Amino acid sequence: MNAPARRLTVDYGPEEAAMQAYLGAGEKRAYELGNRGPIRFTSDGRLDPAILDAYWRCGFYIFEGVLKADELADIEADLKSILDRLPSEKGSPVDAKGRPALSADCQAPNLLWSKPLGDPFGGTKLANGRHPARMFEPQAAPGAPKEIVYLILGSLQFSDAHLRLYGHPHLLAVAAAINGPDFTPFNEAIFVKEPGLGASVAWHRDGVTHWDHPEWDQGTHGFNFMAQLYGCTPANGVWVIPGSHKLNKVDIKGMMEAAGSDRLPDAVPIVCQPGDVAITNRQAVHGSFANTSKDWRVTLNFGFHRRKSVLDVRGGGIHAKPTVYDATHIRERSKMLGYAIDARRQRFPHETPFAYQPHVRSGERYSWDAAAKASIKDYNLLDISI
Description:
Elements: H1 16-31, E1 36-37, H2 49-58, E2 60-63, H3 69-84, E3 111-114, H4 126-129, E4 148-153, H5 160-166, H6 169-179, E5 184-193, E6 201-204, E7 223-228, E8 238-240, H7 252-259, E9 268-269, E10 277-281, E11 286-288, E12 297-305, H8 307-310, H9 327-333, H10 335-347, H11 357-362, H12 370-375
Parallel strand pairs: 1-2
Antiparallel strand pairs: 2-10, 3-4, 4-5, 5-12, 6-11, 7-10, 7-12, 8-9, 8-11
Helix pairs in contact: 3-5, 5-10
């Protein structure tokens, strides 16, 4: 894989030595957790219980070698097309070549911007205030752009390769093992952490609706898959506090104050090779640092919920307009799974397609074609966010 051209990288200034020590110690602890390996199934098709045990113990797991070279090449080609079509600057309806920019004709705000190496959410009331404290913001190198796109939402409409990944039979089998055979969609996105520019994501926990629910447990707010195009390192990847998904209440701001910095001592990095796919519990405390390293990170995110966590529940309003997710809403949003499964079947005919049980029971059939592609514009207005 050939990552896009790299920009001049920077460091943490007087904090650089402490940061490098933190990265190294965290990576060592991460490899001691015993929560990585290939996706494995038992002889009767169930997800290996050892994988489930490690996931529920740690709150995340790294599936190694899920995506092969041909699929990574497809994803990379779509990525380069997407980057080429980004607005020339924030608010511009055209790209650098004067063409209509990506998402310019969409209703949803699909492109999230930040100053280089910035923290756009930390210490603000954005996203219901779930990022309570700001991360350290290194100084970008001279000549850096004023703002950069670091997150692309609703990405299945912009990338057929991401749509096909969404229909991966082994990953969907993992989703069924964790959230039940009637699991529901959440949202999809592409994180872009460019060397010397990529923004941080302040420490936070996902989910805003069910913390006080009488049946709350360690899996109530679902999970995210994070597929890695170029891999990820301690310097540019997501960090997680193992086991924190089991805690109902945490004081993230207090944790940072006790640490004296944004380097939380109990956190470990998710370290991956190209083609690895991490799964992370949305209730775990997690975040990522500004990317001062020389390496790109491009992560294709897609998450799922338990049906009982979302049915007839009023959404949290972070990823889409707040609404009550009735059975009709869930059915409409789940069409993307039908399209993804068929799109993957066409590209990888040697695989056995996943059978999504709600579609099997209803007899719904989906075909990925030009009409279907036209129909999914702004599909993410139906995202299911709790």
